[in-house]
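Task 17 of the worksheet. Students: predict the tertiary structure of the chain below and write it out as structure tokens. Keep your answer in the requested format; marks are given for formatting as well as content.
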Amino acid sequence: MRNSLPSGPTRLSIIASLVLFAAVTQLLAQDEWTPGIQDLYRLDRLAVLRDSTKVASLSSYDRTGGNDDGFSGRYSFVRKEPGGLVLADLEGPGVIYRLHTPTPSDDTLEFYFDGEQTPRIQVKYRDLFMGRHPAFPRPLVGFGAGGFYSYVPLPYEKSCKVFLKAERTQFYQLNYATYPKGTTIRSFRAEPSAEQQRHLEKAVKLVSLTGKDISEYVVPAGGKVETLAAKVTLEPGKAATLLDVDRPGRVVGIRLTPADALAGKGRDIVLRAFWDGDAEPAIAVPAGDFFGYAWGEPATKSLMVGTSGGVNYCYFPMPFDRS
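Model answer:
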């Protein structure tokens, strides 16, 4: 990884700390895996390709291409049924991974699994996002940045219908994944098993660590982590190397300080990363942009990437075969 500064009079000192390297390759090959709640905390699997998975969304977008994206409620449902609106009617095996709305109400939201006639989940639409239902704990649910959200996975073996007992609703988004027939998925249980509860607690713990070092979650079991620190001074028009290794592995975390060194509208510090001896960089971006800066200032604080306490960080796994 190299930082470069175009020609100019400015000299900047940058410390790259906790550049973490996991010397591990095929440790996931025999991993037991069931889609659902584990997706929230098994960050080591973000680098694993997913075969034959359909990822899709249902939302209140204007089907005509206009701007009536939920304002009138005309497109805010899949169909109407007696007593309310069907927001989704999905065939499994699959998992609902996200619910979002800026306009929740006190109407009742119901979830029907596998063709059942009685809803397995029944909760006020607004309460689902407030942490008032035991199946939807904070911080996996909440509100901010223009809307109310839930990232609690809702798996279903055969089907899932989401029904809102209301005559009208406005904006909503629902993201889901459909898996190949025969995929082992156990439908959501209103009373979680001990195993499900353990997974849920791990997810809650991880999401609560936003802005902190979460590199341990990005390393597969058995992986060895090395911390490589570098302190460099950028001279105009020259590059400085932050990390250079000749072994297979993955970058599991980057922490770079001071954050102020990347500030400013010039965006003239460029971060590049080259994998496996490639001549062209796989990453070539203004360094501030890489960490979520906006208008020349730190603007992001998320679980995987952002700025916190004057430190820029990124925990997306970056695997490589040779170097």
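Marker's comment: The chain has three helices and 21 strands. The longest strand covers residues 12-22.
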